[in-house]
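Late entry, written up from scratch paper. The run itself happened at the end of the previous shift, but nothing got recorded in the book at the time, so transcribing now.
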Amino acid sequence: MASVKPVVVYPPAADGGRRVRVDDQFLGIAYGPLDIAEFLRRAGIEDADEAYVAATGLIEWRGGGPGAWAADADDGSA
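Output as recorded:
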């Protein structure tokens, strides 16, 4: 089923990067909220910043919200 939200942020990869898609267009890999804000600015949302990314209802967060940037790794380290 397709997302009803135009922006999808996928779960973190092993390096912590998250794929970002708007509708059917891949925008890039984000390594933090500032990267997503930049992708949104390039897509026409000029006032996008970290606060906007954290609060907007336009983003469907998969595998964790705006604070999740590391892949779940059970490597035994603490």
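Residues 9 and 20 are 5 Å apart (CA to CA).
(Scratch paper discarded after transcription.)
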